[in-house]
Predict the 3D structure of the following.
Amino acid sequence: MTTQEINSWLEKFLGDSEFENGLKVVLSNPVKKGAVTKILITRNPGQGGTTFTKNEFVKDQCFTAILTRDELYSTVLEIWSQYKQVNIMMPEVTIQLLYNGKNKGKILQDDASNTKLFTKTEKSYLIPKETPFLQHLGVTTSQGQVKATMQGKFRQINKFVEIIQSTVKQSDLNGLNIYDFGCGKGYLTMGLHHLFTQKLNEKVITTGIDLKAKVIEDNEATAQACGYSDIQFRYGDITNVEVPHGSMMIALHACDIATDIAIHKGIISQAKYIIVSPCCHKQVRRSMVHQPLTKPITNHGILLERQAEILTDTIRCLLLEQYGYRTDIFEFVSTEHTSKNLIIRAVYTGNNKDNKEQINNLMETFGLRGLQYLDQLLSA
């Protein structure tokens, strides 16, 4: 086929097609090596097929424009001959246009179904959006849809239970006591309880503890409304809580030394699992004195703050290892949702390590005037 014949064929094909069920156009392998290496055009969902997005790829950059139906028609006709390969994909057909750039080309048509390419598959979550407690806590609407303002919280809940599921041994689940220190509104407490009791059919006993009486009252009402058993919410200070041996202890976003108090509670009760997400590392930051080696870092407020965070959590892990825990630190959720996004995960193995020298070296290097607070509690 000549260039003119191909152009006439495209005019008719594009003019006769409505693209109501989807469209994907890929123009690649430019005839002349220029700036734009590839162009991708797709129909925008929910727009009745009337608007399309055009992405132009230029080296490591992408430039985007929105096209109307008429602009799509004129754009493809104008630029197709600048590329050696053009793929036009619709649910019911794929058109492949091969062009040599010298007035000759051919069109291949494949009538095999492309339905999967245009069918959006919804991600499967451990805590699906239809879960009743999500609506009670305002994460989802009465129709079971995640509210726009709660998308981050929904992902956070699911990421957390995913982490826990990958951490806990199946043999440890039956009768496991779970303590959530500083449970707040109970998003994660109930997410975890739902996972174990409703999805995995295990018997666990879950306790959420917080210093806000109204929050505890609301959480109790939500748990009752959802028909959960073996879950309770208690008002009080975590220092007064007795944690049974071999339990799971979690504390997310416990401020400053509250994280140390929670870890200490877990260590002295020899909790099987200790999972914390620290924040506000003020105690170590106030203890740090400028040292010749580290002053270029600690001389800047923001770097001092970050260094205090790293130092605090490093010492916490070293202390946990001294008391027989295997530890790791990793990112919890994207910083787009929260900057408090690190998890310290500790699993009791009974393998005690002698980390005292490493801790002392860190204290000397960064000029700590006193023990990190968890170290103080364990030394008392």
